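Training component of the fellowship. As part of building independent skills, the fellow (R.M.) carried out the full modelling exercise for a liganded target. The chosen ligand was PXL. The inputs are recorded below so that the supervisory panel can assess the work.
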Amino acid sequence: MSKEKILTVQDISCVGQCSLTVALPVISACGIETCVLPTAVLSTHTAFKAGWTFRDLTCDIEPISEHWSKENITFKAIYTGYLGSREQVDLILKLIERHLEKGGAAIVDPAMADGGKLYAGFPADFPDDMARLCAKADIILPNITEASLMTDSEFKSEYDEEYILNLLSKLAKLGCKKIVLTGVSFDPNKLGVAVYDCASGNTQYYFNDKLPRMSHGTGDVYASAFVGAYMNGKSVYDSAALAADFTVRTIMATMDDNDHWYGVKFEKELGYLIDRLKK
Ligand code: PXL
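Fellow's submitted model of the complex:
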């Protein structure tokens, strides 16, 4: 079995172009063997109207991990996204200890909130559990809502650089090594990311022109492209920039279709992603 494989741990939303149905094709397109551990199975993601089904798969995590241990299965990176329950945090911490290769990367997208609010179905104190997972990560990829919830900070939709630097330094205190904070904007026409090195306190930004449409599922598209680029040997900053460019293109590929509100047509831009990785 190839050693150059990664594991991604997140839900399967059967319809909705998010989580595993994005991570698997995007990271695979980057040429990386992508193994999966589903945290839950939902009929759709939770931004659809009430009525979605939810099968919690917490009970499967430990038996799966035990079998992998017997087979000596390890991963070069473990990338986690949307979790099915708070109990999964401790199970995933164990999973990282058992199955992440020495020198490998634990990459955590604390996918749980946006627009100032937790996603439907999460208890109000779930960010505390997610913060425990972020504490052990090499790289975390929160948006501003998730960052504010995990650091007990006020959520602001309008802010200055001081607010962002304060969020970054509070996130660093959780214990992670690098932070890619998404959805950062200091200019109404620009949107981008802040890349923070927790050891040095160095911050770098990357911006694109802001598009006149907010799209669902772009956090997962972004994190998956980031992981794909990073596993191809790009730096954290270059991976963050490449993922931003890819995500912008997926939004543009969806803009002419008003019925396609639930996700972005990332499939149309996989060729671009593959070409960019060759550069
Ligand atoms: O895109 C994040 C996400 C992942 N998984 C599920 C979700 C969401 C966002 O709403 O509901 C189930």
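The panel noted the following from the submitted structure. The two ends are 28 Å apart (CA to CA). The first strand starts at residue 5 and ends at 15.
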